[in-house]
Amino acid sequence: MARMKFLVDAERCIECNGCVTACKNENEVPWGVNRRKVVTINDGVVGAEKSLSVACMHCSDAPCMAVCPVDCFYRTDDGVVLHDKDLCIGCGYCFYACPFGAPQFPQAGAFGLRGKMDKCTFCAGGPEADRSDAEFKKYGRNRLAEGKLPACAEMCSTKALLGGDGDVIADIYRERVARRGVKGAEAWGWGTAYGPPPKGAAPAAAPAGGKS
Amino acid sequence: MRTLSRMTGWLVLALAFALPAGAQQQPAADPDPIKTQQRRAIEQPGNNAPVWRNVQSGQPNYASIPGREAGVLIQPQARFPGQDAIATAGEAWRKFRNGPVTVYGGWLIVVVCAIIAGIYFVQGPIKVHEQPTGRLLPRFSVAERWAHWVMGISFCVLGATGLIMLFGKHVLLPVFGYTLFAWLSSLAKNLHNFVAPLFVVSLVVFILMYLKDNLPEKGDGAWLATSWRMFTGGKQPASGRFNGGEKVWYWVGVVAMCLVVSASGLVLLFPNFEQLRTTMQQMHIIHVVSAVLVTGFALAHIYMGTIGVEGAYGNMRDGVTDEAWAKEHHANWYQDVKSGKEAAKSGAAPQTQH
After folding, report:
1. B187/chain A closest Cα distance in angstroms
2. Which end of chain B lies in a sparser environment, N or C, as judged by fewer CB atoms within 10 Å?
3. Which domain holds residue B217?
C-alpha cells in the first residue's frame, strides 16, 4: 500500500499561493479556515528567501490523534490522517499538539467558542461514503476516491509541492537533488512529521531513469 | 491530611514557577542565520540547513494568510518538567498530558477514593458523642449557604466534566462506544465552558464571605496535630467556627488551588485574546494539574461534609446545628455563641427553644 506524503521543494516554491486557492476552491473550506498556507522565511532577503507550503503532514505518529479526548482521528490504509466531525467536540487539543498548526476551528459562537475542527484531508474526504454529498459538505472533495491526487499539489505551477506515494515523490525529489549536484539525497524537513526510517528498512531503490 | 495538603500546595507552586522557566528552551541560535544562508547558497547551493534551523526555532515568518501564528512553520521547542529531551512544544505538551498527568492524576483520584472507602468501611463515620439536645444554633446564613452551594455544585459539574475529558477516553469510551461517548463529551465540554464563569464568580464571593472566620488562630496547630483521634472514636481538640483542617482546605484548596485553576482556565476559555499556543499549553498543564489535585482534595471535603461526619451535611443544608454537634466539633465557637460573643448569623432559622 502506498504511504501518502507531502513534500515541498524550497528551491521551487515561488509563493504564488495557488495551492491555498486550489484547496479552498476544491474543498469549499469553512470561512476563516485555511487548510493550507504558504510561509516565507527571510522574506525579501536576496539569496536567503525560501517559501514553503504547509498543511496537515499526515504524520506517522500524529500528535493530534494521540491527544484527542474522543479519539475521533483515524488513519487510512494510505497513511492519511482523517477525523470524524460527528465525534469532534471542538476542544482544541489537536490545535495545541500539532507542530504545523494544521487543525483549525471555525468560530461557532461568541467568546471564541470552537466549532468542529477542520484540517487538510489529503483530498481524501472523511468517514462518510466516498464521494457522497454528506462527505463533501463536511470534509470537501474526495479526490483519492476519484483516482486523483490532492488539488494543491496538482495545481502547483512549479511542481514545488508534491503529494502522493512517499516512495514516488522521494524518487522525484532525489532526481532533482542529483541534477542540482547537491551531495546527499536527504529531503530536509521530513523529520518532524515522519521521524527516522523504520529500523532495518532498505533505502528506497534508485530511480530507474530520468523522470524529473 | 496536613502533609498531603502541604505537599499538594508545594506541587502547585513548584509547577507554577517551573513551567514558564522550563518550557521555552531554544536550541543554540545562529546569531545571523540570514548571512549564514546567503554564504551557504554560494558555497553549497541547495543546502538550506541554516533556513531549516531557523524554522526549528519557531520564530514567525511571513505568510499572506491571515491568522494567529500563521507564519510559524513549526512550533517552537519546549520541555515540560521531568522531560529528558527538548521537543516541539506541542509534542512536549502531548507527552506531559498523556503521560504523567493522565497516569499519576488518574491514580491519585483512585487512591483518594480508596482511602475514603477504607476509612468509611473500616472506621465508619465520625459520630457525635453526646445525644442531640434539640436546641439549634444558627451556623450558616442564607447568603453563606448560597455562596457555598453555588460554588460547590458548579465545582462538581466542572470536576465531573473535566474528568470525562481527561480520563473518559480510557474509562468510558470502551464501555459506551464512540457515538455515545462523543455526545457525552460534547455535553461535558459545553457544560465545562458555560458553568466555569459561574464558578469563578461564586469562588470570589465565597472566599470574601468566609475569609474572616478562616484566619489562622492559636489552636489550629494543636487541632491539626491531634484531630486524627476523631477517626478512631476519640474526641478532637476545641476549635473556633472553623477548625484547622477546614482552614487548610480553605486556604490551600479553595483560595490557592481554585484561584490557580480559575485563572488558568479563563486563559483557555477565551482563546480570542490573541494568546498563542505556547501560553495555552502551559496554562492547560497548570489547569489540569491543579484541577486534579483540588479534585482529590475536594473528594475528602465532600466525604467529611456528607457521610463522613454525622450531622455535617445538615448544617450546610439548613444553616443550623444542634448544640451537641457544636460542642463536639467546634467547642470554642459554641462557647462564643452561647456567651453572645459571636453574633447570630442573619437569615438563619430562629433558635428553637424548649
Report:
1. 9
2. C
3. 2-26+87-141+211-338
